[in-house]
Amino acid sequence: MQRPIQTYTDNYGQTIEFTIPIPHTKICINISGGADSAILLYMLINYCEEHIPEAEIHIITSANPIKSWKNAKWSTTVIDQLLHLTNTTLIKSHYTFYSDDQRRTELDDTEKMIQEQHGITFTINGTTQNPPVERSKTFGPPTFKKRDPGHGMLTLYVRDTNITSWVPFRTADKRIVAHLYKHFDMLEALFPYTRSCEWHPHVFSSANPGDGHCGECWWCKEREWAFGRL
Ligand SMILES: [Zn+2]
Questions:
Q1: N or C, which terminus of the chain has less Cβ within 10 Å?
Q2: Please, how many CA atoms are within 13 Å of residue 81, restricted to the half-sphere of its CB?
Q3: What is the pTM of this model?
């Protein structure tokens, strides 16, 4: 028998189906400190507590200068808050890797290492679709290639390393994430503990936002667009 599938649909017709397929119990999730992966971890914890009590959740975080090293700090803040909210004991490890950029290959290599160490068979990534291009263009630098309509993009696929990868938000933009925060009543309990800002002194003339949100960078504007607030 398969495990339950939980379906969520936002006001814009975007749907995600949340399930961890049998036989996976050893799960790795990439936590960025942003809102997308934070709500995904919240849902994963609750799903496992209810349906996979033997699950082991392993977390990977990147520390890199592009986010002024703050992604490592904010990822930890998110995990602390989720431990507080859920009282879970299913999180078994948290590994932070250094990267001087944000290369996908470095995350892949780290996932491979954690897989070998802990016998991971399932990985989750919270990447979302870009907003509609007309909106995205107004967000300023950096510019992005246009929105993929979702054709040919699998959200669940088996990689050559024998890891099944799941990117549940891949065909939905950040508005589905805002919907999930509202649905789970997490707009006050979790959202303020997340941060997406990528302010950089060479790009923006505004003051360093420190632990706050600059409100100017592409990621702050995407966040404000989806949530109506920073
Ligand atoms: Zn910002």
A1: N
A2: 21
A3: 0.92
Structural domain count, the chain: 1
Among 65, 118, 72, 123, which Cα is nearest to 93's?
118
> Are the C-beta atoms of 45 and 81 separated by less than 8 Å?
no
1 in a structural domain: no
Task: Decide if 133 is inside a domain.
Answer: yes
Q: What is the pLDDT of residue 91?
A: 97
What range defines the domain where residue 183 resides?
6-227
> What is the whole-number distance in angstroms between the Cα of residue 46 and the centre of ligand 1?
30
Ligand 1 centroid–CA 136 distance in Å is 15
> For 78-98, how does the pLDDT look when each residue is reduced to its tens digit (9 = 90+)?
999 999 999 999 999 999 888
Measured in angstroms, how far is the CA atom of residue 118 from the centroid of ligand 1?
A: 35
What mean pLDDT is reported for the chain?
Answer: 88
Which among 76, 13, 23, 26 is positioned nearest to 55, based on CA atoms? 26
Question: What are the tens digits of pLDDT across the range 168-201?
Answer: 998 899 999 999 999 999 999 999 999 988 887 7
